[in-house]
Each structure stands twice: as structure tokens, then as C-alpha cells.
Design a protein that fits this description.
This protein has 14 helices and ten strands. By secondary structure, the protein is an alpha/beta fold. It has one domain: Divalent-metal-dependent TIM barrel enzymes (TIM Barrel). The strands form three sheets. A five-stranded parallel β-sheet has the order 4-6-8-9-10.
């Protein structure tokens, strides 16, 4: 198989060279682009700090066997998934994945770096940075569906203190790993039916985030973000953190980035179009990459049209060092290792495909209004032998080809998952 991959790659390399694309360079460049792998795919967003149900618009469907039940099982599964994913990785954690030892337990407002020490050891031994998310859901102190925008001062104070604790933990991650930590603030705050007051909750939300960001941190090490959402389960009519709110907050608060989740918009909106718009104004932006089916359903990412368009915009805007990329989906209806691997590999395919596109030549055709030739050239790209380049990339990274992927996943399911 290796010799066949190499043979096919040499042919593909020549074909791409004929249109001005250096596939060797594209492969080498992709090897150094970090993508953050989210821990919560492995246990259906369960975490370890409480035993209640998922709330706040979070819902995982399915009951595929083999879910990770302990921190060690989750780490083992992340290792297995990572072994199937080519390229550079970061680890993305939620605060609810704190690991308590010796019978200790603290609430989310009292979390400390020591509660994530094992995750730091895990990441450092694998040369991974860590991204972080305060967990503003699935907790008894979410009052009437609200956290940072609650009219109840005691509720807001609890969640503000949680956010501040997460700033300190993010600083710890960055200092320990030597890699900046992207800390994303998202809440499911909102109302099921038409509210009587829209501005009040948003003003409280604004002031709460401002208080969280008043916690001292090194802006070169901690990258706070605000993430918007159009609606969720139980908050169909109003969300405090709308797109306009999040973008304006980030634009008016130094050191705060906008984070776009491509499942968090109206079905006819596409994040691929928003990426270049934001890059006109923001030095850096962040993404949560998912696949929404009719709504924010968090299906595993596939190598589909919008995934490819998002990657194209990052590459052709020369923004690979300006965009923080993280995966965010959770599917319990299929093998969870497969969901991780297919999602990560699909985003890597999208980036590699974008790197193998003659972007400068296509831009020149557009600027010269040669739209007929542009259309034909863009169609030509769809049948270029990209699969041969992808197989070569996987080979150079030492991971399974698409052909061998299911066999690797199936063996782990038999040897490990099925025995849990």
C-alpha cells in the first residue's frame, strides 16, 4: 500500500505542479497548523463535577457502547483518537472535567489549577497546548435557565467567580505548556418565549463578562473569547449572547476575541463568509468547527462544502496564524473514537485542499473580471487527484489511511470499548 500511495502521489504532484501548486510545501505547512481536539466527544459532555442531567441547551443523542466513564478512560480514548489523526493537536477542556483526588470536591466558583494538574501532565507529555471553556451549564446554580445574565445577584456572582477561576486556570495552562490558551465564554442564557425585556439581560451579561475579564492575565498567554448563539433547546426566542452582542463586545474590549461556532447561526448563514469579514477588523479570531443539520445539532464534521469553504477562507486570507481552530461536536449514536477521527481528519482534509488550491491565480482572474475562466478553473479543482495528496500526508504523519481507518477503530472497540 505504501508503494501505491507513493506512486499515486508522484502523479498527483505533477498534475498540481502544472497549475502552480507545490503539494510538498502544502503537506509540510499543514503539519504545523494546530487544531484543538475537544475532550467532551468521549463521554457525551458528562464531565466529573456533578451527576445531574445535561442542561442549558446541551443535548447528546444516542447510547453507543463504550463511553468513557473515568478520567483515565477518557485520556486513553483521546490517545487512540489522536493516533488516527494526522497533524498538530491541542487539547480542548471544559471546566466540568476537573479531576478531584482524595475525596476533595469544590464547586465551580472555587476551581483551582491543581484540579487540572493531571490534564497538564497529559498534554505536556504529548507536546500539546490546552484550550479551555468555563462550564455555564449542567449545574444546579443555573437559575431559571440563566447564569451571567440572571437578575439574581447571587447567581450572577457565583458564575462570575467561576469565570475568574477559569481565567487563572487558563494562565496556568499557558505557563505550563508554553502555548497560549484560548478561553471561550459561552452560556445558554435565554428565554423560551418572547421576552418582556431584551436589553436588561444583555446589560447584565455585558457587565458580568467585563468583571470576569477584570481578573489579571497575560494577554499573550490567555486569549479570552465570546461565543454567540442564535437559539437553543429551551431558549428558542431569545439568547443573551446573540451574534451582534458577541461581535460588538469583542470589538470594544481589548484582548477579547470573537468566537464563531458554525452551528450557531440561522440555517441560511455561513461562517465561511463571516471569516474574511471579521479578519478585516480583528487581529485574531477563533472558531468552533462542527456540523449542524438544520440546527446546532453538533454532528461530526465531514469533508462537505461548507467545511471546505471555511478552510479556503482561512488559507486564502493568509490567516492561518490569526485563526484559532477547535472542533466542537458530540455524537453518542456512533463509535466515539470514529466521530473524533472522522471530524478531525475532515477538517485536516479541508485545510490541505485549501493549501492545494492556486489561490493567487484564482484571485487574479476575479480581479481581472475573467469570470468565465474563473468558473472553469474552480470546477477543474473539484476533480484534481486530491485523495492521493491526502494519502501521502497521512503516510508522512504515520497514521492510517482512509482505507485502513475503520479497521483500526473496530479493533480498539473490540479490545477496549466493548469490555467497559
Amino acid at each position: 500500500m505504501d508503494s501505491l500511495i507513493q506512486k499515486n502521489y508522484e502523479i498527483a504532484k505533477e498534475m498540481y505542479a502544472s497549475i502552480g501548486v507545490d503539494t510538498d510545501m502544502a503537506i509540510q505547512k499543514l503539519k504545523n497548523i494546530p487544531v484543538s481536539l475537544h475532550c467532551w466527544q468521549g463521554d457525551d459532555v458528562g464531565g466529573y463535577d456533578q451527576e445531574g442531567p445535561l442542561t442549558g441547551g446541551i443535548q447528546t443523542t444516542g447510547n453507543y457502547p463504550g463511553k468513557a466513564a473515568t478520567p483515565q478512560e477518557l485520556m486513553d480514548d483521546i490517545d487512540q483518537a489522536a493516533s488516527l489523526c494526522p497533524g498538530k493537536k491541542k487539547l480542548n477542556l471544559h471546566a466540568c472535567y476537573a479531576i478531584f483526588e482524595d475525596g476533595e470536591h469544590v464547586d465551580r466558583d472555587k476551581l483551582e489549577p491543581k484540579h487540572f494538574k493531571k490534564w497538564v501532565e497529559f498534554a505536556k507529555s504529548r507536546n500539546m497546548g490546552i484550550d479551555f471553556n468555563p462550564t455555564f451549564f449542567s449545574h444546579p446554580k443555573v437559575k431559571d435557565g440563566l447564569t451571567l445574565s440572571s437578575p439574581d445577584e447571587e447567581t450572577r456572582k457565583f458564575w462570575i467567580e467561576h469565570g475568574k477561576a477559569c481565567i487563572r486556570i487558563s494562565q496556568y495552562f499557558a505557563e505550563e505548556t508554553g502555548i497560549p490558551c484560548v478561553m471561550n465564554i459561552w452560556t445558554g442564557d435565554g428565554f423560551k418565549d418572547i421576552p418582556a425585556d431584551r436589553m436588561g439581560p444583555r446589560m447584565r451579561y455585558k457587565e458580568s463578562i467585563e468583571e470576569i475579564l477584570s481578573e489579571p492575565f497575560d494577554k499573550n498567554k490567555v486569549k479570552p473569547c465570546v461565543e454567540s448563539k442564535v437559539f437553543g433547546i429551551g431558549v428558542e426566542s431569545f439568547t443573551s449572547g446573540s451574534a451582534e452582542f458577541a461581535l460588538t463586545f469583542a470589538a470594544t474590549h481589548d484582548g477579547c476575541l470573537p468566537l464563531m461556532d458554525n452551528g450557531h447561526y440561522h440555517p441560511t448563514e455561513v461562517v465561511s463568509d463571516k471569516i474574511p469579514a471579521l479578519l478585516c477588523f480583528y487581529p485574531e479570531i477563533a472558531l468552533h468547527i462542527t456540523r449542524g443539520v438544520r440546527w446546532d445539532s453538533d454532528h461530526a464534521v465531514l469533508f462537505d462544502d461548507e467545511t471546505k469553504e471555511m478552510a479556503k477562507e482561512i488559507v486564502r486570507c493568509d490567516a492561518l496564524e490569526r485563526v484559532y481552530m477547535a472542533l466542537d461536536f458530540f455524537d453518542a449514536s456512533i463509535n466515539r473514537i470514529a466521530a473524533w477521527a472522522v471530524g478531525f481528519r475532515s477538517w485536516q482534509k479541508a485545510l490541505l485542499s485549501a493549501l492545494c488550491t492556486p489561490n493567487a491565480a484564482l484571485k487574479k482572474l476575479q480581479d481581472e473580471s475573467k469570470f468565465t475562466e474563473l468558473m472553469i478553473k474552480q470546477e477543474e479543482m473539484k476533480t484534481m487527484p486530491f485523495g492521493a495528496v491526502w494519502n501521502q500526508y497521512c503516510k508522512e504523519c504515520g497514521v492510517a489511511s482512509d482505507h485502513d481507518l475503520y479497521g483500526k477503530i473496530s479493533a480498539y472497540e473490540t479490545d477496549v470499548l466493548a469490555k467497559r
